[in-house]
Amino acid sequence: MGRVDYLAMKTEEETAANLINSDLNEFVDAAKKLVKDATMVGGLSFGTSFLQWAASVSAIYLLILDRTNWRTKMLTTLLVPYIFLTLPYVIFNFLRGDFGKWIALISITIRLFCPKQFPDWLEIPAALILLLVVAPSLIAGTVRESWVGAVICLIIACYLFHEHIKASDGFRNALTQKHGLSNTIGIVALLVYPVWTIFFNIF
Predict the structure, then answer these.
(1) Whether 80 contacts 127, CB under 8 Å
(2) Closest CA to 190 of 68, 66, 75
(3) How buried is 25 (Cβ within 10 angstroms: 0-12 exposed, 13-18 middle, 19+ buried)?
(4) For residue 65, is it left (φ>0), alpha (ψ between -120 and 50) or beta?
(5) If you average pLDDT over every residue of the chain, what do you get?
(6) What is the pLDDT of residue 137?
(7) Helix (H) or strand (E) holding 9
């Protein structure tokens, strides 16, 4: 009788040990999966943030570039909404606050009362600051953070790329003419971010 009790107790202990080991294995597997998923999400977030910064810097570079083969008012006008939609959140929120409001107020005041003292090259940056300040939350928040904003950026980038190739008389000239390569790289950077964003919004 005592041996039977001993065997039963031993079996229960082995069963409990097996259950504990099984629970530990499941916990380890879940932890590994959590780390893997977090790493993947973190990598995607870093990639998206990096491409967003690259797109904004490229757009600003193309906006302030003095000499290009395809400089037109349409180009600079289209870059304003592109920068608005791709500007990193830190800079966007900073310019949308009191600092941006003061810049917009000073710009409008000088433009109204001292138009001769207001340089032409400041009109587009001033318009961008004004757009950042007065844009309603629906556009500043919802559209910027959704696939709609990415589609708008993609359309702008595709149009600018087409106009650049057309003005350069072909893709080869766009890579060989003066300023052609830097402009082409800048516009390609404009294309990558919205394509990346739309892809991960869909899939």
Answers:
(1) yes
(2) 75
(3) exposed
(4) beta
(5) 76
(6) 85
(7) helix 2-64
